[in-house]
Amino acid sequence: xxxxxxxxxxxxxxxxxxxxxxxxxxxxxxxxxxxxxxxxxxxxxxxxxxxxxxxxxxxxxxxxxxxxxxxxxxxxxxxxxxxxxxxxxxxxxxxxxxxxxxxxxxxxxxxxxxxxxxxxxxxxxxxxxxxxxxxxxxxxxxxxxxxxxxxxxxxxxxxxxxxxxxxxxxxxxxxxxxxxxxxxxxxxxxxxxxxxxxxxxxxxxxxxxxxxxxxxxxxxxxxxxxxxxxxxxxxxxxxxxxxxxxxxxxxxxxxxxxxxxxxxxxxxxxxxxxxxxxxxxxxxxxxxxxxxxxxxxxxxxxxxxxxxxxxxxxxxxxxxxxxxxxxxxxxxxxxxxxxxxxxxxxxxxxxxxxxxxxxxxxxxxxxxxxxxxxxxxxxxxxxxxxxxxxxxxxxxxxxxx
Length: 401
Ligand code: AMP
Description:
Radius of gyration: 21 Å
Order of helices and strands: EEEEEHEEHHEHHHEEEHHHHHEHHHEEH
CATH class of the largest domain: Alpha Beta
Strand order of the largest sheet: 5-4-3-2-1-6-8-7
Number of domains: 2
Shape: globular
Strand content: 15-25%
Mean pLDDT: 96
CATH architecture of the largest domain: 2-Layer Sandwich
Number of helices: 15
Bound molecules: adenosine monophosphate
């Protein structure tokens, strides 16, 4: 069975075609900078090496069309008929309170999706265009929507509410939603599989540390809290996002700097100019921060310390929320690859039963592995995330049922 996973960002389309009988990738790629003069199109497949070129694509429909035409190409394609695709899984950033779980696309689902546009105005219209494009280009093939927020829908009200007047929740749906749900879900399942224990018997903290980062507290396979909030800005220090700050700083900035009376400028400051980048003045990328810190940049060292400390604090608070944990899982670009971050985060957490094996932590590998000492009460694992495969699995499951 072949499953196509489509991820439409605000100006990009990523895709992976899976052979779900083997859970292996057949073809994958992305188109970036949609709408600009030059778009970058990169793709690869099991049969053909990576190919890169600049193309002109003005919208998501054209991008999806380009991808599907190439998948069908007689010379370098991966399928000979669109009917070979059993289902298309779309990654959707925000399901609000409308979508508690993945759904098959129907006219009703699309109407409900439109109601979620204000919650993620950059991403949701792009997702919608992607769905429309797939419907047009792959007629008769079922599409499934898989939401980043859905896995967090088990968070209890006392954890997802903000202590603002209640009307803002009722009228404007302001509450914690959480993000990276598909990744947290995938690595939690993989962790249980790796240990050979049922997920329902485990208390896990998953740390998805990438450009955007979030932690989730998971009990019996259900999320009880997460660090991101109403938007993906809340939580730990990220590449260019500030994470948790005193909300009164916003009003203070608006009073002092006239330019921040504009919400776009303010959002830009908090989402694109802060975090590692804002503190270091060097980069939002952890590799560059580590290099700069090693060359004596004090601000880069501070940015690194701030990020690690913010992760450590969430581990402590989720440990309390779960009344202890069995597992701590690191995933995503930083979580999987940056041993100094893992070492710093886990330093002095023996009181919580977390004891890292610093040598194992430094080993370079792409495999799932345990990096805690044999007698550590809490097992610390590295699990490479695979959101696309999770979306493919969910999509396959949904059409099966
Ligand atoms: P992601 O958003 O999951 O792609 O993660 C991107 C982040 O992972 C960036 O901050 C990268 O610097 C970081 N990253 C990727 N590879 C490494 C590595 N080998 N060492 C340190 N950080 C890395």
